[in-house]
Specification:
Elements: H1 7-24, H2 28-34, H3 39-47, H4 66-79, H5 81-100, H6 103-114, E1 120-123, E2 139-143, E3 146-157, E4 164-170, E5 180-186, E6 192-197, E7 208-219, E8 223-224, H7 230-266, E9 268-269, E10 272-273, H8 278-306, H9 313-338, H10 348-357, H11 366-385
Parallel strand pairs: 1-4
Antiparallel strand pairs: 2-3, 3-7, 4-5, 5-8, 6-7, 9-10
Helix pairs in contact: 1-4, 4-5, 4-7, 4-8, 5-6, 5-7, 7-8, 7-9, 7-10, 8-9, 9-10, 9-11
Length: about 375
């Protein structure tokens, strides 16, 4: 389909595609096996200005938005969802600074994030606070000119690698979710350290760690927005970042589809390529249709956000929900097209299937996305009736 990209967007897409094919794809299996963080690729992405595509020009970026970010994430993810996540997760940690940072905070961090000199992370999840984000326990108490943080965050993408971390914590326990705040914490701050690196099913090139805070003193100037806005920061951030997860899912699915089509032409059974068999053709046709539909919804969500629409929770959740379900379905079907070879680690679709699963889970499980969508539908129905 033609998405009518302008010349700059085409250049961004082509550059990301070139890096994916030439730099990421040859290393994907190696990084998956070693679980090494892809600093080599991060450096290349930084030198290519791709980290800055969604950052305002006045802070060193290219002035694009969520749409441009999605273009990059999809192309990188088509080669490796785990390596691409180093980029996407940094975007997740950067978005709160763009949305809620004051000018001083933006000048301090965004230019360095735009060049890839540093990367970011977003820390919300805790051992007892996953889908129930309002149940966080990490506390930040104001003590003179500093906040003192205590608690543990869990399953933080880019954890331990990111220089700047947006941490959602409780500043007023008496107010529940309205007593949470967002605080920027730099790597190397005394009392802050990364915990164990998780051994994951997929996205193994991505670092997922605990973040541990023990009497960690952070200047009060690192507060994002105002006290009590932590939950708002998180929800507004997810509204803008979920299309990025959707783009990751679309990229993984597209990569698996491409591999399945190519394999179907190379694999012979009964004296002919399996691409001649109607059963395989129907699978490929369904896979391609699902990927294109997911891409259309993802880019529409991104366009809606960039267009300034205020209430984007529904379409953002729809994009994440549909694209991630599509990625799981398409990668599973790709393994089926490959047959027994698809189950072997030396063939890429096995990894793609493992990578796809997390897109149904993080930044809100797909069950949570359905709840968000349904509640928005009900609210809209009530407003129309009134």
């Amino acid at each position: 389909m033609n998405y009518f990209l302008n010349e700059e967007q085409k250049e961004i897409q082509n550059l990301a595609r070139k890096i994916a094919k030439e730099k990421i794809e040859p290393l994907a299996l190696e990084y998956d096996e070693s679980q090494s963080f892809p600093w080599e690729i991060v450096k290349i992405l930084g030198q290519s200005d791709l980290f800055g595509v969604f950052i305002p020009e006045e802070y060193g970026g290219l002035g694009g938005g969520v749409f441009e970010m999605c273009l990059v994430v999809e192309e990188l993810s088509s080669a490796c969802g785990g390596i691409a996540l180093s980029y996407a997760a940094s975007a997740l940690g950067t978005i709160p600074i763009i949305l809620f940072g004051n000018d001083e905070q933006k000048k301090k961090y965004l230019p360095r994030l735009a060049t890839g000199e540093i990367i970011a992370a977003f820390a919300l999840t805790e051992p007892d606070a996953g889908s129930d984000a309002a149940a966080i326990k990490t506390q930040a108490k104001l003590d003179g000119d500093h906040y003192v943080l205590n608690g543990t965050k869990q399953w933080i993408t880019n954890g331990g690698e990111a220089f700047i971390n947006t941490v959602i914590c409780i500043t007023d326990p008496s107010r529940g979710a309205r007593g949470s705040s967002a605080i920027l914490v730099e790597k190397g701050t005394p009392g802050f350290e990364g915990g164990k690196k998780e051994n994951k099913m997929g996205i193994r090139a991505s670092a997922t760690r605990e973040l541990i805070f023990q009497d960690c003193k952070v200047p009060k100037e690192n507060l994002l927005g105002r006290e009590g806005q932590g939950f708002l920061v998180a929800m507004k951030t997810f509204d803008q970042s979920r299309p990025g997860v959707a783009a990751q899912a679309v990229g993984i699915a597209q990569g698996a589809l491409d591999k399945a089509v190519a394999y179907s032409r190379e694999r012979y059974q009964k004296g002919q390529p399996i691409s001649n068999f109607q059963g395989v053709q129907f699978m490929l046709a369904d896979m391609a249709t699902q990927v294109e539909a997911a891409r259309a919804l993802t880019l529409q969500a991104a366009k809606t956000i960039d267009g300034g629409e205020k209430n984007v929770a529904k379409i953002s959740s729809m994009a994440k929900l549909f694209a991630s379900d599509t990625a799981m379905k398409v990668t599973t079907d790709a393994v089926q097209v490959f047959g027994g070879y698809g189950y072997m680690k030396e063939y890429p679709v096995e990894k793609m299937m493992r990578d796809a699963k997390i897109t149904q889970i993080y930044e809100g499980t797909n069950q949570i996305q359905r709840e968000v969508i349904a509640l928005q539908l009900i609210k809209e129905s009530v407003r129309r009736k009134d």
